[in-house]
Write a structure and sequence with these properties.
Blueprint lengths: L8 H22 L3 H12 L8 E2 L11 H9 L4 E5 L8 E5 L5 E3 L5 E3 L5 E2 L3 E4 L3 E2 L5 E2 L5 H12 L3 E5 L20 E3 L4 E3 L5
Parallel strand pairs: 1-2, 1-7, 7-10, 10-11
Antiparallel strand pairs: 2-3, 3-6, 4-5, 8-9, 11-12
Length: 199
């Protein structure tokens, strides 16, 4: 990526989001089997440690559906979790989830586990995105939840962050600044890419 003054990055990200969302919507319509392909590539290629707490997300809109993959991890004996927002500017927290868990509607219409479910700390995160590049950076929705969350988790213990997407969501270079957290893996319906250590 060419160097961009930090003051220009927010504007560049805003301009990229609308196009990235449009491309993701089109890709989702054209690739009904993408979620299964991603699941197979994660299971065959990503080294998820035995016993790791694995977080996913409740898909909204054209986001790739990772719930079948999360169910697989639950069946394999992993503790699984879904993110819960606690306000803009704060890292996500995670409540335990398994098939059949009672759910409640939260901010933005996202479903989250009911409050009686315990808090857990994931060491493997399946991360949604609007776009990605092969350096391992993602374009999110603009609130910075996952960047803050990954920074906080990585400061405490090793974390494996896996961006899941359709291959059509790839960009040559995602606009980024020093706060953006790199993903360890990008897994799509066409390939699994280990991106290397955080720069």
């Amino acid at each position: 990526m060419t160097d961009v003054p930090a003051t220009d990055v927010p504007a560049e990200k805003r301009a990229a989001r609308a196009e990235a969302r449009r491309r993701r919507d089109l890709a989702a319509a054209d690739a009904p089997g993408a979620a299964r392909s991603v699941m197979e590539r994660v299971l065959s290629g990503v080294p998820v440690p035995a016993g790791a707490v694995v977080s996913g997300y409740w898909p909204i809109g054209s986001e790739l559906d990772v719930l079948p993959l999360l169910r697989h991890f639950c069946d394999a004996g992993h503790v699984c979790a879904l993110p819960v927002g606690e306000g803009r500017g704060r890292p996500l927290r995670f409540r335990a989830w398994r098939p059949g868990t009672a759910m409640v509607e939260a901010e933005y219409g996202i479903m989250v586990p009911a409050p009686e479910e315990p808090w857990v700390t994931p060491s493997v995160l399946l991360v949604p995105l609007l776009a990605f590049d092969r350096a391992g950076y993602r374009l999110g929705y603009g609130a910075g939840y996952y960047d803050r969350t990954l920074a906080a988790l990585r400061a405490a213990h090793p974390v494996l962050a896996v961006g899941v997407a359709m291959a059509a969501q790839e960009m040559d270079a995602v606009p980024r600044d020093r706060y953006d957290q790199k993903l360890d893996w990008i897994v799509t319906d066409r390939f699994a890419l280990h991106t290397g250590p955080q720069a």
